[in-house]
Every structure is written in C-alpha cells, then in structure tokens.
Amino acid sequence: MEYGFLLITALAIISIAITAGAQLYIKSAYARYSKVASKSGMTGYDTARLILDKNDLKDIKVEKVSGYLSDHYDPKNKCVRLSDSNFSGTGIANVSVAAHECGHAIQDKDNYSFMRLRHSLVPIVNLSSKAGYVAIVLGCILGLLGIVWIGIICEIVILLFQIITLPVEIDASSRALKKIKEYEILDKKELSGGKTMLTAAALTYVASVASTIIEIFRLILIYGRRNDRN
C-alpha cells in the first residue's frame, strides 16, 4: 500500500478523532456541571434575564428552544434562545451557557467587529458548505480535478469563517464570566466550574479549525495523487 494513501487515511482518522474528542469533552463537562446546582438557585432563564436587564438590553427576549445544547443568540430577532435543560436548570453549566449567550447579545449592542464580520459571512459560508461538498464528490467520482479545486476553495472559505468565530466565542465567554462574578450568580468556588464549562465549549471551535485545516491538506493530497495518475 503506497505512502500517499496511508497519509490520506491517517489524516481522515486524525480529523475525526479531534472532532469526536472535543465533543466528548464538552458533553462530559456539561454532564458534570449541570448536576451541580448553584448556591444562588438561579435558572438559566433567571441568569439571562438578569444580565440582559442590567446591561440595558431589556428588549432582548429569552426563549426556550428544543434540542441538546442548541442554545444561541439570534441577532436578527434580538432573542437569546436556551435549550430546555439550560432554560430551567439551576446547575453551574446551565447558568454558564445562558451567560455566554448573553455575552453575544452584549457584543451585538457594542457593535463588536468580529461578530459583525462573522454575521456578514454566514450566507457565503452556507453556500460554500453545500457547493464544496458537491464539487468534491463530483470531482473525485468523475475525475474532474478542476472541480475538486472549487471544493478546496470552499473549504478555505469555511476555515476563514471558523477562524473569525474563535475570537467571537472567546470574547463572549470572557464577558459571561465577568457578569457572573459581578452579579454574584456563582460564588468563587463555583466560578471554576463555570470556567471549565466555557473552556470546553471554546475547545470545540478550536477543534473545528484544526479539523478543517487537516481536511484541506487531505483534499490537496487527493488532488495531487489523481493529478499524477493523469
């Protein structure tokens, strides 16, 4: 079996392992800290409402949404959406996730540049995700190497989006921890659990960047091998 094929296979395995490892870490941290109730007794909803109201964001709604860790801030509809468990849960993880989403709302209010840039790239990234997959599959099946390069370029666009997302998520977590401490939502001992939870979440974005870089390199190697055969 040739070296090139082994390298391509190894890169695919490494990419999957990085993504799976990051997901396992955040699920483990969430499972642990969602079971540890905060002494304040505040739910995720209470946390979100308190942070929003104290930062002149009373117009921002807090709604419940179905799904596991489906929490997000919707800048278009000015709404913080919390998953079922985080909306009503009183665990350290529940209030930490709620505070993180409020961090995004505060970013929106402050016109945080990286958030604005990320939001503007969403339509392009959505198109790149679909077009890139189709181009790579068709290019490999039909042997049209030019089309494969379109897929690689689309992957690079996605990587750019992921890199821009990193400071947005890290900054939102930083804002969240400051508000949690300022409003005494968690005490000093509980705050370390909140930091662990938010760090685990940030690592999933780092893992996405690493995985995409590996995937781009793998696609270039595939292109090179097919090009050498032609």
Encode the helix/strand succession as letters.
HHEEEHHHHH
Low-confidence stretches: none
Percent strand: 5-15%
Tally of structural domains: 1
* Shape category: elongated
How does the SSE layout of this entry go?
Elements (H helix, E strand, L loop, with lengths): L2 H31 L10 H11 L6 E5 L6 E3 L4 E5 H5 L3 H18 L3 H30 L2 H38 L5 H42 L1
Parallel strand pairs: 1-3
Antiparallel strand pairs: 2-3
Helix pairs in contact: 1-7, 2-4, 4-6, 4-7, 5-6, 6-7
Can you describe this structure?
By secondary structure, this protein is mostly helical. It has one domain (3-229). It has helices spanning 3-33, 44-54, 84-88, 92-109, 113-142, 145-182, 188-229, and strands at residues 61-65, 72-74, 79-83. The protein has a three-stranded mixed beta sheet. A hairpin with a 4-residue loop joins strand 2 and strand 3 (79-83). The chain starts with a helix and ends with a helix. The mean pLDDT is 89.
